[in-house]
Amino acid sequence: MTTKAFYLTDKSLESLPQWLIDNRESGPLDIYINSTGGDILSAISSISLISSHKDTVTTYITGSAESAALLIAISGHVRIANQNSFGMVHPVSMIVEGTYHDHMDAMKHHKIIFETIKNILLSNSIAKEEQIDALMGPQTTWLRPHDLINFGFIDYIVEIENLERIDGKDKTITKN
Asked: Is 176 domain-assigned?
């Protein structure tokens, strides 16, 4: 069976959920990520589709996985980062116009999004809640591959010819 691949960039994030739906019966999938993020709702949809995929979904951080793109990267069944890649987590932000009630509704939505992001980070890591709270703000947090390993956000760092496992043992992954 052939593995199908998707290259996630800033411009392609919104099309990932449809690609996952179109390929739900296609066997293993690879998602290559180099993105500063994008629409959080598309990311949440993608994460749900990845978790329900019947076969292995492998995510590869090939450069940058920031914001929503990092959430997708850590949601793969197998999660790999290039040794020169990085991730980024930042506080949730929004712009709201309108009445007082519009602002109050936006705050409710903002809280739901914040809690959803926090849950995704917690459920795809070995980090404690206090560590996730610190990552989510008030500042932007940049993560190198070894930081991603230490939090349990990725399983392997691709180095010259080896993959470093989270438990420190060497493992080689071969693709058909």
From this structure: no
